Amino acid sequence: MDGLTPTPDSRLDGYDFDYLIQEDRVHRHIYTEEPIFRAEMTRVFGAVWVYLGHESEIPDNDDFVQTWLGLRPIILVRDSDGNIRALYNRCTHRGSTVCRRQSGSAKAFQCPYHGWTFRNNGEITGVPWPEGYADDFSDSKFNLAQVPRVDSYKGFVFGTLNMAAPSLMDYLGPVAKPLAEWVDRHPGGKVALCNANRLKLHGNWKLVYDNSADGYHVVFSHRSLLAMENRLSEEGDKGMAFYKESPDTAPMYVYYFGNGHHFKDKRGNVERDKPGALWEIEGVAPGMEYFEEKLRREHPGRADEFLDLAASEPMNINVFPNLHILGNHIQVVRPISVTETDTTWWGTAVIDDEGVLDGAVDDINAIRMRTQEGFPNFGEVDDLMNFEQIQVGLQAEEDEWAYTHRGLGLPDRFSVDEAGTIKGPATDEVFLREYFREYRRLMTTRPDIQIAREV
Amino acid sequence: MNANPARTSYYVDDDFYADLTAAFSDWQSEEAEIADPARRDEFRRLLEREARLLEQDRHADWLAMYAPECLYWVPASADGGDPKREVAIAFDDRRRLEDRVYRLGTDYAWSQQPPSRTSRIVSNVAAFETADDAVVMIRSNFLITEFQAGDYRTWAGWAGHRLRRNGDGWEILFKQVNLINYDQNLRNPSITL
What we know:
Chain A is an alpha+beta fold and 455 residues long.
């Protein structure tokens, strides 16, 4: 068998997903086959709520930023009336992109090719020499296409093309709680993006998703980082050192929430209620001693609380299919081809609109920028090499399977709560098995995809 | 206060950020350009030596070209942006630069297994006076061809070096590496630029 045998329920271009996704393993084809990738862009990215951007990227009316929904080029815009919309960056006339700038402010987009012009809500406002058309362009079919359902949660903007999808809150389900906790540790329950470490890999996008709650790889893939982080530390307890001994008995857990979302919660390793506990395990960063002393001198009663805002939150929150919150980063995954993926690690800054930080926000951010540059430089690059080398290894045609069965058959390792959330030890692969089950369901279902043109 | 910048980072303070921003603002004026070919050649040789040491993976010798209180900076923004409020591709003080070199020497830095081989061309060297007689700014273009595991990659852009006189020679205070694709996704940015 090679997965090409069609069955009535699960076939897609001849690929049988009941064969490709099994309880304990997945077939190499899901990472290597072009037809499967093309189908994912519709059956996964077209079917579920996909992260499009952050509200802080478009704070004011008329602000826009370019983004992607799968392979669809999107302009995420806050229109002149303040509504957040996800316009297709595709002229209705001949198909050219109408917006070429990565971000900016614009009340209208004019196609550079023939000059068709659209308001920033997508509505067509004019075409050159209209007397050459029998149409009067009052029909909404000439408006830019847009994602029919766009919604936000805690500053995260999502869109879906699937009219039958549940509400965003129902789609998020229990993952909304850690997302809220992550955001709400910041003043006003807000963060703002502050540029990014932008990375690319020659590998399939799912290799990133597979790794995102993986507690098994840490001491191996990140061996150089762990050694580096602790080269000057007498206690040897910096960064991710809590993985070193026996991560499955440490107070950190992997959760599977349904709808492909999962979560690795490492907060049990720190006394999270004690101010300064996060700061204590933060690795070294440029300027940290100066700014720590300054904060302690100028804010003696609140310095630990402020320093914790500069330190990384030990959470990995993974919102299927393309959003990861880890440390203080918002990591966004963009599939480009079956073997190429961009992964962008947006930094986040603390903002203090309400003035509750006693003027310390700039000093907190001065440390926080530097702590955030550590992992992309010294950790993620090693993971990305390992993902690329998976892609190389999976070229071996006859060696078909990649295993996902750590923990399978050991029911004592898991608990399930009343909401159906599965909890297991930190290195377990239960999150892989469960998200692939959801992936298989999506890949064998044709979503009701629609675009909107009415404004 | 432990002032060893390889162990603690007290020097990356408010004044440091202010000086950094000032150093990389409006520094390439024609009035400030150093016309003397002998002086320019001295700086060109320094940059060529830096490139050669990196090609040869002589990282300890490379680090020795930098002042104790130095900065290696690869901005993710045009003109550097505001480093106190933006993350950079790299913003390494002395300790983090030594971290970077240490990691590459661990044998477990998988991003550099196998190690990349590089060929580095430095050109278009221009030198500029500053208000301080002992400090100059250098602008140069670079083109790095990286070969690793069958793939060629190219890194191109311009660098700004801030040099301070040190005995008979010069030490590097700041190096700002401006990639032409600073705002794009980069594959395996783990070599030292």
